[in-house]
Amino acid sequence: MDKKENKRYSLEFGKKEKVLNYTTQTYQLSRPNKVGAVMALIRECQPKTIEEWEKWYFENAFTAGKNNIKISRESLQELGERLYTKITEVVIPE
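-> structure tokens emitted (94 positions)
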């Protein structure tokens, strides 16, 4: 039986992945009110390629909560910058 190969679009972070997960969970940077209900969006889209997913996500994703805001590349960039700041200024020094 042939093993199905899954093409990875993300890098292996190794031990750093624990830091990323800890920080995003602690500071709630991956919550639906920040990035939308991602798993529900993936199920709705059923993308075949990463490019298809990116296009669909940026056209259809909104934050969850009282004030639904359209997700943009800029809003995700800002979350990434906040993640970097939390890791470098709070988590690593701890």
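The CA atoms of residues 20 and 38 lie 18 Å apart.
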